[in-house]
Amino acid sequence: MEDSSYGPASFRTQADALLRKNLTFQKRNISTNIRLISFPFLLCLLLLLIQILVNDQLDQPKYQCGCTCIDTNGTGTCQQVCGIQYSTLDQAASCAIPTPQEWPALLQVPDPEYRAVKTDFISYSDLPDASCRETGSCPATILLTGSNISLGENLARNFFTGVFSPSSSDMLYSLANSLLGSSSMTSTDNFLEPAFTSNLPLYDIQPQCTRNSSFSVPFQIESVTVQQDVTCAQGLNLWRNSSSEINDELYKGYWKGNTERMINEIIAAYDFLNTNENNFNVSVWYNSTYKNDTGTAAIGLVRVPRSVNVASNSYLQFLQGSGTKMLLEFVEEMPKRASKLKLDFSSLLGSLFFSWVILQLFPVILTSMVYEKQQKLRIMMKMHGLSDGPYWMISYVYFLSISLIYMLCFVIFGSLIGLEFFTLNDYSIQFVYFFIYINLQTSLAFLAATFFGNVKTASVIGHIFVFGSGLLGAALFQSFLQDSNFPRGWIVVMEIFPGFSLYRVLYEFAYYAFTGGRMGTNGIRWTDLSDSTNGLIPVLIIMVIEWFLVLLFAYYLDQVVSSGTGVQKHPLFFLSKFLKKKSPSFRKPSVQRQGSKVFVQMEKPDVSQEREKVEQLLLEPGTSHTIVCDNVKKVYPAKEGNPEKFAVRGLSLALARGECFGMLGPNGAGKTSFINMMIGLVKPTSGTAFIQGLDIRTDMDKIYTNMGVCPQHDLLWETLTGREHLLFYGRLKNLKGPALTQAVEESLRNVNLFHGGVADKKAGKYSGGMKRRLSVAISLIGDPKVVYMDEPSTGLDPASRNNLWNVVKRAKKDRAIILTTHSMEEAEVLCDRLGIFVDGSLQCIGNPKQLKARYGGTYIFTITTLNQEEEVVEILVRRISPNAVKIYHLSGTQKFELPKQEVKIADVFQAIENAKRNFTIQAWGLADTTLEDVFIKVARGAQASDELA
Ligand SMILES: *[C@@H]1O[C@H](CO)[C@@H](O)[C@H](O)[C@H]1NC(C)=O
Ligand SMILES: *[C@@H]1O[C@H](CO)[C@@H](O)[C@H](O)[C@H]1NC(C)=O
Ligand SMILES: *[C@@H]1O[C@H](CO)[C@@H](O)[C@H](O)[C@H]1NC(C)=O
Ligand SMILES: *[C@@H]1O[C@H](CO)[C@@H](O)[C@H](O)[C@H]1NC(C)=O
Ligand SMILES: *[C@@H]1O[C@H](CO)[C@@H](O)[C@H](O)[C@H]1NC(C)=O
């Protein structure tokens, strides 16, 4: 295009323009940004507050190792001594334990009501009868098997050793000498054996119980003596033919035979395998379910040592005779240091809180993308030459940087206030995971933005997504994670949902920080990634792959589903290169002449003449006309019972350079539909238009670089100033350096926005008229070849309007302008040609004078006399013009239409002068037809013929 002085802006120029605009926009939105960034700050502070409260509670004497004052040397001055012996149970946890208590090793023995009995689902007849459960005298069973039954029975005989004889001098020794068990649950350490602190009795397992065999023994725990109940339990050992039989029996006992609500528990079971005189080989079944690990991930102890000792002891006695003994005297926990009780809240609550913090960015990005779409700002930018590539790149980088800054603030602040979640975990790992995630989230927001056209809906859905995925993550996903039986494959599948993959990452980070904090070590390190149980590598892979896929898909949908960003492309638009080869010429005269015949018949000669001109132009290759519309039609399909709406019925129009075409027409005539098609907001149903030889159906992107639009409703950024708007659009039009500054100054001056600092006020503060003028200035900046103005002067005061007209008049010199207006004055002043557009089609076309001549052709004669002289006046008028028509009369005032060809103005003056002698003429006037009269006539005529049709 040799006549375009600047040429289309390069990718860099466009990106630069958009970036500068965004940065200015961001500067203005500083308060919103502060609010956004303060959200994580507040949450971190909240966590810190909770942490301080918890620490404060844990710091209370209630949880500190107990101390007391002891008068050691009898002088009355006492000395503070601390230790577990002065502590309550709550305090004991924080005490140093240099010499832990020794405990007799116990067996895990079921309570009598659960011990194995004969049932219909277990067929062994050697089990006791179920009636023993009523008396509480059921024996506790041990099951045995092995390859040599006679050896097994020998060993079994040595299992239960006889009567418990408590010796008060060495209670621990005598307890160790007999076979004792408990049904209590164990805890995570063995500083306190629950069997001695719970109220449950110890079971003393003997070959045979005598009646009344319950008694109580004193037991020393530290300096305290407790009375411990001991109850006799009869021991029963039963031989089974194979280990699979034992498995079967245990399984049925545990699962209540699948049907009955009856539990059959045993103490333990032994398989002696290939044991003989030279070789002791045994495997032991034990029940690990009873260890108390409810709620925490800590692992409880199991009471296994004693059951191994029983078997070894009986083997030793089998070899050596009953005189020998292998005694397991006691078990003892390892000593421990004094510790302070602490609980890291950031790690406990972290996954939920932090996932909210990070997800919070999603609605922010989503709504600002949708805002530009809803306010039509994106299409406005596009119409002034911003192509999709720079828009995407800059928007992406821009939102990514915002996310990055946000995350940095979050991590730095969290670390500063000392949340272990941040301080213990390796920062480089945090960076990698968070960086990948915010990329994924940004692309996700881009994808979501293609589905929404309304900021409110987008914002609501966005926030539901944030809180929903946080809560679902904490309530559902986390429980799946903790359930080791839940198939890991399904977890990976769930992580495809980005909210869950984020949750997984945070959960693992929190877990490492929490355990690291408790153990006094580190959180996660790079080496920990090799541990497949934390699943961090698959999450990373999922996030990276998803990021690319989502981004591609979002771009694709953005092109294909328009929802306010312009005409959508064909779903296979990326194949267009191949498609174009098949049909090289898009420029061929439209072929649907059949359909337009109906209108051709009704068309006025001037309209069909224009149509013929267009057809002629389409056949010539290099046309000098800037705009050529070829039978453009727009039909809105039938909806909700309403019939199809013909908004534009086959419009043909050709505009040369330097021409301004005015479209007049009543409201709802289809002017805006027409303009919308021309600027690429909607696609024509049929027909097309060529702008400088480029087809609006296919080359809109190229057309945009040479187009200016002043839309009916001002599309402006509330927070940018007039000057910034012009700078931005000027840059998009490839203006640079001094040329840009000059162009901006000039257009500000032209539209009267230069003085009094108006140019540097925010557009949101402008009056309606100022916004209008700014819109016009925007449409003209950068010398576009085609300009569309939709009612440019509405709402302007007369002075500004004149100003504006001068601008447009000056501007139309080397471009084509299409202008819609309701002001006849404006049309007359600005337009070289006018078209009156009624009900979707042009009724007439021509310059204002021609139209007036064609549709006017009369003078309007007004005269006011006394009431009784009306008839005399009418006779007078008939004399001047025989075909005069009276169109109005009221109390002496009358109006006549006088056909121009019959009347000479001089004759009228003469006649009135003469008449004045005969009667009083209070006032009179003679006026030419105005454009307004023409307009009303044409519009009425068209509507009347419509009603006839
Ligand atoms: C089974 O064990 C007994 C000793 O109790 C031994 O005498 C016998 O030989 C063993 N039988 C087999 C088949 O090993
Ligand atoms: C176990 O083996 C013994 C001897 O071989 C046999 O009498 C008994 O029926 C077997 N028991 C079962 C339940 O198979
Ligand atoms: C293991 O111990 C738990 C808890 O006491 C009990 O509910 C369960 O039935 C026991 N399992 C077997 C096979 O005895
Ligand atoms: C113990 O028994 C197992 C299973 O039969 C066998 O694999 C292993 O070799 C045995 N050990 C010895 C020391 O005999
Ligand atoms: C398990 O341990 C917790 C505290 O550690 C205790 O409150 C609870 O009662 C224990 N449960 C049983 C069944 O012992």
UniProtKB/TrEMBL annotation:
<feature type="transmembrane region" description="Helical">
    <location>
        <begin position="36"/>
        <end position="54"/>
    </location>
</feature>
<dbReference type="Pfam" id="PF00005">
    <property type="entry name" value="ABC_tran"/>
</dbReference>
<feature type="domain" description="ABC transporter">
    <location>
        <begin position="627"/>
        <end position="864"/>
    </location>
</feature>
<dbReference type="GO" id="GO:0140359">
    <property type="term" value="F:ABC-type transporter activity"/>
</dbReference>
<feature type="transmembrane region" description="Helical">
    <location>
        <begin position="348"/>
        <end position="371"/>
    </location>
</feature>
<dbReference type="InterPro" id="IPR026082">
    <property type="entry name" value="ABCA"/>
</dbReference>
<feature type="transmembrane region" description="Helical">
    <location>
        <begin position="535"/>
        <end position="557"/>
    </location>
</feature>
<dbReference type="InterPro" id="IPR017871">
    <property type="entry name" value="ABC_transporter-like_CS"/>
</dbReference>
<keyword id="KW-0067">ATP-binding</keyword>
<feature type="transmembrane region" description="Helical">
    <location>
        <begin position="431"/>
        <end position="453"/>
    </location>
</feature>
<dbReference type="GO" id="GO:0016020">
    <property type="term" value="C:membrane"/>
</dbReference>
<keyword id="KW-1133">Transmembrane helix</keyword>
<protein>
    <recommendedName>
        <fullName>ABC transporter domain-containing protein</fullName>
    </recommendedName>
</protein>
<feature type="transmembrane region" description="Helical">
    <location>
        <begin position="490"/>
        <end position="514"/>
    </location>
</feature>
<dbReference type="InterPro" id="IPR027417">
    <property type="entry name" value="P-loop_NTPase"/>
</dbReference>
<dbReference type="InterPro" id="IPR013525">
    <property type="entry name" value="ABC2_TM"/>
</dbReference>
<dbReference type="GO" id="GO:0005319">
    <property type="term" value="F:lipid transporter activity"/>
</dbReference>
<dbReference type="Pfam" id="PF12698">
    <property type="entry name" value="ABC2_membrane_3"/>
</dbReference>
<keyword id="KW-0812">Transmembrane</keyword>
<dbReference type="InterPro" id="IPR003593">
    <property type="entry name" value="AAA+_ATPase"/>
</dbReference>
<keyword id="KW-0547">Nucleotide-binding</keyword>
<dbReference type="InterPro" id="IPR003439">
    <property type="entry name" value="ABC_transporter-like_ATP-bd"/>
</dbReference>
<keyword id="KW-0472">Membrane</keyword>
<dbReference type="Pfam" id="PF24526">
    <property type="entry name" value="ABCA12_C"/>
</dbReference>
<comment type="similarity">
    <text>Belongs to the ABC transporter superfamily. ABCA family. CPR flippase (TC 3.A.1.211) subfamily.</text>
</comment>
<dbReference type="GO" id="GO:0005524">
    <property type="term" value="F:ATP binding"/>
</dbReference>
<dbReference type="GO" id="GO:0016887">
    <property type="term" value="F:ATP hydrolysis activity"/>
</dbReference>
<feature type="transmembrane region" description="Helical">
    <location>
        <begin position="391"/>
        <end position="419"/>
    </location>
</feature>
<feature type="transmembrane region" description="Helical">
    <location>
        <begin position="460"/>
        <end position="478"/>
    </location>
</feature>
